[in-house]
């Protein structure tokens, strides 16, 4: 399967995260560990994520907003 396939956007059955969401969490964890647990600048995190997966700034911001609980996934918004 190629990296650019549409399967990257399907949530994993184990935890419900997509490959891109998992990459963001992984990079955040690694960068925080390298910096002694301090906050990670968003632009630094975005750069590290781009080393693993290809995504736009808007898509990255949407993932961060969802993970921070600032927005709900579109499937949940329809229920309201």
Overview of the molecule:
With 80 residues, the chain is mostly helical. Helices cover 50% and strands 0% of the residues. The chain is built from 4 helices and no strands. Helix 1 packs across helix 2. The mean pLDDT is 83.
Structural class: mainly alpha
Please mark out the parts with pLDDT under 50 across 5 or more consecutive residues, or reply none.
none
**Continuous helix count:** 4
Rg, nearest Å? 13 Å
Series of H and E elements: HHHH
List keywords for this structure.
4 helices, mainly alpha, 50% helix, single chain, 80 residues
In short:
This protein has 80 residues and is mainly alpha-helical.
Strand-helix topology:
Blueprint: H1 19-34, H2 42-50, H3 57-67, H4 74-77
Helix pairs in contact: 1-2
């Amino acid at each position: 399967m190629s990296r650019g396939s549409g399967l990257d956007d399907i949530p994993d059955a184990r935890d419900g995260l997509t490959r891109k969401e998992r990459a963001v969490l992984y990079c955040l964890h690694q960068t925080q560990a390298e910096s002694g647990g301090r906050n990670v600048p968003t632009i630094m995190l975005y750069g590290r994520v781009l080393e693993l997966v290809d995504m736009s700034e808007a898509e990255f911001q949407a993932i961060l907003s969802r993970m921070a609980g600032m927005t709900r996934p579109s499937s949940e918004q329809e229920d309201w």
